[in-house]
Amino acid sequence: MNRTDRLYALVEELRTVAPRPRSARWLAERFEVSSRTIERDLAALQQSGVPIWAERGRTGGYCLDVSHTLAPLGLTVDEALAVTISLEMLATSPFRDAATSALRKVVAVMNDRRLAETVELAERVHLLTDGPVAETPVEFADALRTGHVLRIAYADKAGARTTRDVEPMGFVARGQFWYLVAWCRDRQGIRAFRGDRIVTAEPTGEIPERRALHVEDLDIAFGELRAITTTEKNR
């Protein structure tokens, strides 16, 4: 059993016996792995929002609060496969931690038969890139959400570094690279910073008024921008 299947099975096992607990040792024997592996899996599920808690004592173990879990998702296999592929494509993006957490939640509440079929199909899908890409700093996603100014150390093509304060405005993805679109206070204009060239990114704590971002402001000389969301009139 691979880890994805085991995470789902762990939730279903705890759901079946809830509110009674299952010990890590019992679960380890059930899934033929070590107790340490079970504890890591349960910690991962807890971090993703699944309401699992530990009861101490000789008869204690791990419990699932069934009143706060989602019912099995009504996703078709095609829908579940599309969600899985989409989230996996964010593996080097600023949203990779949230994508991993979201996938765990989907796995935890999917129908057993559809999940097994989805996993089998997903193993037949591969992403081809030009080579390994450095992960884009996760601070980008936090800064965009919170509106914090970032102090970044940025390396250009020649490797020369500059330090500047920027106001995050958005993101652009091209191929395997993610770009932070931000108002650069040093240049007094909108600039795009390639994620893998940002050496450090530290929030300053300052939250200025959020600037509007318009497609025409980006002045991209190649390609065509496609928005993630669409307005009602464009559907």
Largest sheet: 5 strands, antiparallel
Can you count the helices?
Answer: 8
Structural class: alpha+beta
Task: Spell the H/E element sequence.
Answer: HHHEEHHHHEEEEEH
Q: How many β-strand stretches?
A: 7
Fraction of residues in H or I helices: 25-40%
| Net shape | elongated
Radius of gyration: 22 Å
Termini, distance in Å? 42 Å
Low-confidence segments, ≥5 residues, pLDDT <50?
Answer: 231-235
Mean of residue pLDDT values:
84
Strand fraction:
15-25%
Strand numbers in spatial order across the main sheet: 6-5-4-3-7
How is this fold's topology laid out?
Layout: H1 3-17, H2 24-31, H3 35-47, E1 52-55, E2 61-64, H4 77-88, H5 96-109, H6 112-122, H7 139-146, E3 150-155, E4 161-174, E5 177-184, E6 189-194, E7 198-203, H8 215-218
Antiparallel strand pairs: 1-2, 3-4, 3-7, 4-5, 5-6
Question: What is shown here, in short?
Answer:
With 235 residues, the chain is an alpha+beta fold.
